[in-house]
Description:
Radius of gyration: 18 Å
CATH architecture of the domain at 18-26 and 36-167 and 178-229: 3-Layer(aba) Sandwich
Shape: globular
Domain MPBQ/MBSQ family SAM-binding methyltransferase profile: 13-222
Number of strands: 7
Strand order of the largest sheet: 3-2-1-4-5-7-6
Helix content: 25-40%
Order of helices and strands: HHHHEHEHEEHEHHEEH
Largest sheet: 7 strands, mixed
Mean pLDDT: 87
Transmembrane segments: 251-273
CATH superfamily of the domain at 18-26 and 36-167 and 178-229: Vaccinia Virus protein VP39
Keywords: Membrane, Methyltransferase, S-adenosyl-L-methionine, Transferase, Transmembrane, Transmembrane helix
Low-confidence stretches: 1-10
Number of helices: 10
Structural class: alpha/beta
Region (SAM motif III): 148-161
GO molecular function, one term: 2-methyl-6-phytyl-1,4-benzoquinone methyltransferase activity
Amino acid sequence: MASKLSQVASQTRPMQHKKVAFWFYRFLSLVYDERCTGVAWTEEIRDAALERANLCDRKLRVLDVGGGTGYSTLGIVKHVDPENVTILDQSTHQLEKAREKEALKKCTIIEGDAENLPFPTDYADRYISAGCIEYWPEPQRGIKEAYRVLKPGGLACVIGPLYPTFWLSRFFADSWMLFPKKEEYISWFRNAGFEDIKVEIESPKWYRGTLRHGVIMGCWVTGVKKASGDSPLKLGPKSNTIHNSEGTLSFLARLIPGSFAAAYFVLISNYMWIKDMIYPKGVDI
Length: 285
């Protein structure tokens, strides 16, 4: 089982790489809150997704893994006291933006790796990760870590993209980052040991339910950890970190095509918005 999972994890897309993702966000962090959140991760969609995390008590200990600029964390602290929330991200530039937000001043903000979390086993009540899994070289390892750090009865909520069915969108998805299929999310959660696994799919209103181009932040997956201790899943050594050496040509061969592919999905979102304005209501687009 472990060797099979490692084989799947090795089939990575250009941005599914720690160092490339770090530099991608070095520049994206400059405009992320102003330009990116309104495309597929609006406040309305964010708050609806976070409802699945069942943030029912202000004293819950919550980990926001891949929290970046703190945009998702702003939704979390509506329900949980900031001093009980930890934001973790590998991007120093994204975290600088989080530290500037007044509502997050009491949160703990640390640099770290989602696939090797610096927290003890049975530590948190909630694990939330929004818009992060698509950059993990080994998504199964990241979900395994989510299981480990949760307390018994704790809930993980992973929010990420969904693989498109339209051929051109599939091409650009594979040229950018990981767009998992619904079945892959379920498999990763089940292998890690989670129970009561639920998957919901939501797209921006102007998509009118269309999924052929995939969704960037519209797949919401939750699972519950029932027993204490580490995940029963055994994996080999971790292979990809932000400190891995990477040749300049190899690095650029990942960063440049990945950046162009990302632009495609921004255009798609605007294209769907225009179609929504033009096509009669009630008609599929």
